[in-house]
Amino acid sequence: MNLSLVDPRVEAKGFLLPFLAAIRFLFFRKQTPKQTFFYTPPGNVPLVQAPSRTERSNTRLFALSPEGAGFVPLASLSIPALKKDNRFFMENVIIIGSGCAGWTAAIYCARANLAPLVVTGIQPGGLLATTTLVENFPGFPEGILGPDLMLAMQKQAERFGAKIQYLSEVTEVHLDPPPFSVRVNGQIWHTRALIIAVGAQPRRLGVPGEKEWEGKGVTYCATCDGALPMFRNQPLVVVGGGDSACEEALYLTRFASQVYLIHRRDRLRASKIMADRALGHPKIQPIWNTVVEAVLGEKNQVCAVELKNTQTGQTSKLDCAGVFVAIGHVPNTRLFEGKLELDPDGYIRVFQGTRTSVPGVFAAGDCVDRIYRQAITAAGMGCMAAMDAERYLSGSGS
Ligand SMILES: Cc1cc2nc3c(=O)[nH]c(=O)nc-3n(C[C@H](O)[C@H](O)[C@H](O)COP(=O)(O)OP(=O)(O)OC[C@H]3O[C@@H](n4cnc5c(N)ncnc54)[C@H](O)[C@@H]3O)c2cc1C
């Protein structure tokens, strides 16, 4: 008698599982989008795929000029020139910037199977990665450290297939009809769609102590930091004379014992309604014709500012627990001057969501938004840009 030691059900399972796995692999695996990917690396790295004849005759594809000084049409280069010092990469979507807007766009694009390439810039994680406790990002009842939040966003994007050019900057863009070209670390990348999420930098005072006490009393966002325990029932200083400065000062009256509004002129630059509101508030005291010369701190927090009267030259010291700098922001958009429609202050103009003046190019976050400038609004716009890009790509048949 032939006795089998294996339970027939187990035996059947042993056959079934690889069979099911094969079916799953053949029919249900996630399709990675086809990438036209060709390059001729320099030196002795093997040629992966040379541009085809059609690609080489395409005057819309650009290559690094043999001198490395700019873009030249791929069509104008001979094969030896291509082999010598040009590489070509074609992507579905390139995302410039890795702040809240960039990583959120990356999560959405990656989940849409677009395998986006994120160029992080020299500040991976963006502005929020430079701060400490973030108390107003939804989902974290106890708050979360800025760097932790940004790392979590990066991991989430990577998990779905986002590719990263870490600590790399885009130094040149070519936004003629798509495909677009960007230069990253001397390489040229082509992309069918582009999402710009380069953020904006707050203007700094540039005085001694400002950098040293940043995050320990010096801040650039009242909405973000005003409610922190360190500022409650304390005298606070706001520097600036525009609408933002008035808004920040008014916001801080909810927490501060007194708000000093320091302005270098003898009247505010703000709109009349904002100026009237700020100057009429019992907790706000303007200090005219005055500049901050230094920020002082002791133990672990700001304790005072040194002031100078611009008319008399007289110096003084003012005790305070925080310095809120509200002298404006500079969007990081110089790269796009003359290539995209920008407003007079350099913010990228968007239409119908996140579409810029060039079809196929989308913009999100603080480089677009001069009003809200919050992590959550930047993230929201990143999501919108990804969805707009995805629709654009499916509409354009890419
Ligand atoms: C000190 C501080 C504290 C803050 N705290 C809070 C808070 O508690 N809560 C809150 O909601 N908001 C806070 N904010 C505001 C918040 O940080 C911003 O609104 C948010 O970071 C904007 O995100 P973003 O993606 O648009 O731009 P950013 O975060 O500014 O990111 C821009 C990204 O673009 C990259 N980049 C720029 N140029 C290039 C280039 N040429 N090539 C490649 N990459 C490039 C940079 O490296 C960076 O990764 C704070 C801001 C500051 C300054």
Automatic annotation (TrEMBL):
Pfam families: Pyr_redox_2. It catalyses: [thioredoxin]-dithiol + NADP(+) = [thioredoxin]-disulfide + NADPH + H(+). Keywords: Disulfide bond, FAD, Flavoprotein, NADP, Oxidoreductase, Redox-active center. It comes from the Bacteria. It is an enzyme of class 1 (oxidoreductase). Residues 92-382 form the FAD/NAD(P)-binding domain. GO terms for molecular function: thioredoxin-disulfide reductase (NADPH) activity. The keyword Flavoprotein applies. PROSITE patterns: PYRIDINE_REDOX_2 (PS00573). GO terms for cellular component: cytoplasm. Binds 1 FAD per subunit. Its cofactor is FAD. Its EC number is 1.8.1.9. InterPro entries: FAD/NAD-bd_sf, FAD/NAD-binding_dom, Ferredoxin-NADP_redctase_2, Pyr_nucl-diS_OxRdtase_2_AS, Thioredox_Rdtase. One of its GO terms (biological process) is removal of superoxide radicals. Belongs to the class-II pyridine nucleotide-disulfide oxidoreductase family. Homodimer. This is Thioredoxin reductase. It comes from Candidatus Methylacidithermus pantelleriae.
